[in-house]
């Protein structure tokens, strides 16, 4: 253990710095002579050779800081292994820099896309340890990802804010929560915010069920309703389409996002006034919450232990309250989705929350 | 002082309940036999005769509650004095209910539109005391309105959240802040959030100045920039148009709001990636902040004193730290705008913040 | 399922109302005719016959409200089964009211003391379902209790606030965190707040180890240090005493709490200025955080399912992410403590955090 | 304008960095060659010659950071002009360093004590501009000081947290708020937190009035009461003592602070259970709130303008919403206290809040 490269890739989120601090503090504690390099702006830095020598003090005071002190960028590959716009072989470039810099290990923090590339690098001979970063909580092999709980807090706060307005004006409010493919964030924020209707990508909705739920509430004398809708919510109709057909249909959609379509349908079918709020990028920003800070610190410390023991090729996950190494090959390419039959869904459904199905 | 009607009108905001609590507690303290009625859902309740007898305990525990416990609705008049869709004379209906209910005074909480109607009722012989409610801070006759500081906090928090993402990804971020006609909220949130560029309705912008400011930042090695843009921000070009021309132009605009247009222009002219966040209705929701609670409590208490002294026809404002009665006739129909020559603007400009002018 | 009594007992905490809402909404959903009674101020209400009929609307809007809408009071027994100060047999009184009110089930929310009495009532023939409430997270049979995460947030926020002052002044700061017997809250807040030293009841400390850790930090050029100290932190010396000896020694202690003693020792041994902050009761107050709201909603919904299935004599716990019924007899009288050998402790220790051992 | 020294002195508070950022950004904007030095740890740094050259990037990203990036320490003089423990003439040492470093101006951020020394330095020939820093809001010549509103938020939050517990248990709760000599913080937090009784240093209390107010609440069926008590609250009895007598009496007091004494008296006289919470140093920590960030930015920018115009010997205050220069000689040695006859007190009193008088 001599030279370690840190790399953060994909959309930023709240607890990246806290996680890197956990890794770094443990490494320095084990060996004060360890050299840590920040590879700048994600895989770009590894491809084009941009890095920065980090010092112990760089990791002081960052436990509570959002974002990433070493920058990030999108996944480098749309198609795995493709060259860049100038024909550069990006995979080779990464392997070359890894060797040139004499790195003993790459510590890579990222989401699903990031893990595919990390697995590739591992297969090509790099020592790699990864950490599960995403507000979407959709990484296979861990019960929970860092960033998720902080994002739940922000999305819930958005619903809380909307609540008072909805109640005062007697309206239907839609809060659109991040999550194109998976609904964890919408599910948790929806429950925490007391949403009456929760629409997830994993449970296609029937607009008539949604309308019925709204009318039931009106009949009970309730003046307002709140919907938590995932960006990737999808109607049963659309779910039946092929990928191509759906893409074509969406392209023609007159609305900036699915929430607006749902809103228009509700307004038309119920006559109730509908308002839409999109907290958007706010959900991945700001301070990590205490839950994430503890999670990140533990995951980071456990990642450092793997490095110290020279156990490479793993992501560190949190399973049943314990940090565990999960082989990268098992993580890459899988998505952890909400199971419509999970007990959490059943419990909430039996409280009267509508999932539109 | 026997029978007092409370009425909240217009868009809700954070400290309406705290204000009504201030009025009610002071009235009950002065005379435990006072009868307070909540007129439901704004002027609608006064027009169509919906009210609710309030009890002292209704005003307990609401100091920290957002929204309004008596509901609200839009201003009843687009054109002052017009009848409703069934031909009902709304003004007469309000005066009739005022008499029928034997009210001694109406306490009306609302913004600019609300004050026009309040003034009309006052001129027609109703005893009226009003309170300046709006997140826009644009009511004439008071230094500050309740709701404003709470909204500043939320809009600032949105910028804070965006900050970490902007810094991590090296992007231009636009946060669109509420305010169609006035820029107080954008100005304060922009300063508090450390925005690099602030665009207000009162200071028409030149997109080239904005671009120049962004390029200057890039030249200084800064990887990201943040713009706080009011909903009602307007380019110099557009500001030169007649109302009609502008309306026509806006109708054809391909973007959901001005921020998207500005974003597209920046992206085109600088090649930098731009992201837009619209906290929207969140800005008027949630708990009132301590500043607003103190302000509301004081304004409410002072309004009660006017009622006790049977001094009607006034809005209670806060001027230089003191509660003052302002004649309704002076308030109605005026707008308190940001003066482009105000010292706050000069101070900030000389720090290097760009206003696009 | 006809008549259900709700009862909250022991110190209040943040998510009691959210939990009761989960139970009530599910019960009403299953059977709109169910009668729910709030038994007032904990077991007192059951002993002395005070209750209130609840309506569905009582459970609306309380998801985010701290405290308990039906009041609470201390455990009724210091010695299980003892009579009250007037000689009243409290156990009999509770059983009598249970019968008199024709209750089908008691839903009891409380901590360890509460569970002993709940188990007693169950053994005496009452139908009982319980829910694990405590900021201490020390209830056996569940991975997590509601209230805990909200309290972690507040205690962490206290450390965050202190951080800036400690850094500005270059001082040693002690934040005393709630927890007389168990250290979960201190452990999590300490990690989340970035404390340098964490002292728990389960890991007796040697003041010399603490001092050594502080001196090591000074030697590294760090100007300040932060200690998270549990109310029940105990020195190795004191841990070796008998209960009686310890009580006698503590009685003579010149300090209001252990933190002050530790502070005085540090000041004497290192010459550094020490400040102590005690957030105290704040830790159990305020809004439940989104994590707790989801947890509470799920636990409450699962408790209702047990009642619907007439499965009595259980506490609902959360184990590995699933709600599970745990026999009351297994829960009562046990304490879930921090295991000094747990991986969380090892992970943090290897980051260089000192536990004083 | 060439070489400027920044110095923060006295207890830290939330918006020191934001203020320095305002000064620095404006100075750099006016003249990119200006040299700014951070004089370390308050006047100590000026006395003993410790400073650090600052760069523009040091002032980036600190708008939201609590504490002070250049450190602080207590006022250097108990008696103005006294030498240090080694006989060093501290005044001379400061003047010598000022000359040796060829400073063109000192920018000093501090409270009342700090201003006495700043005035002394100004009288001795240094160019000085100061800024009003304190959570106490007791500096003469400005309507408001930075730090105050952030501290109000924290103290109010403490009361909010306590509220739910007080309501659940039916107890009397005392929240002790910072402020030895002045009550602004207690007054504002007390109003914002909905305290029933507010005790300030400026309005000596009669414990019997306090008890009467509590009993009145009990008689009205209210189960709990909350007192906001300033650290420096004083009974009428004690207020009548000479300084010496009071000091002697306080020394013998069995309680750690006045709140505990008041609590014991209430418990004895009413039989109600009393709990006390002391948020303490938390009140000066953490992030500055948006209000303070705007205030600090404006004050800082205005201070820079004075320097640019070589207008020395002033504190920058905020008066009726405008930044104004106030001669140091007018500021030094004065205290801005709460006037018991101020309209804010009258307004609140007539709502039924008890001030104990």
Keywords:
cytoplasm (chains A, B, C, D), four-stranded parallel beta sheet, Rossmann fold, 2 domains, EC 2.7.1.11 (chains A, B, C, D), eight-stranded mixed beta sheet, 357 residues, alpha/beta, homotetramer, 17% strand, 41% helix, 12 strands, transferase (chains A, B, C, D)
Oligomer: homotetramer
CATH class of the largest domain in chain A: Alpha Beta
CATH topology of the largest domain in chain A: Rossmann fold
| Most residues in contact, chain pair and counts | A-C, 44 and 44 residues
What is the architecture of the largest domain in chain A at the second tier of CATH?
A: 3-Layer(aba) Sandwich
Number of domains of chain A: 2
Q: Per DSSP, what share of the residues of chain A sits in E-state strands of 2 or more residues?
A: 15-25%
Proportion of residues in helical segments of chain A: 40-55%
Q: Give, in order, the helices and strands of chain A.
A: EHEHEHEHEEHEHEHEHHHEHEEHH
Mean pLDDT over the residues of chain A = 96
InterPro entries (chains A, B, C, D): ATP_PFK (IPR022953), ATP_PFK_prok-type (IPR012003), Phosphofructokinase_CS (IPR015912), Phosphofructokinase_dom (IPR000023), Phosphofructokinase_III (IPR012829), PKF_sf (IPR035966)
Organism (chains A, B, C, D): Jutongia huaianensis
Binding site for Mg(2+) (chains A, B, C, D): 112
Family (chains A, B, C, D): Belongs to the phosphofructokinase type A (PFKA) family. Mixed-substrate PFK group III subfamily.
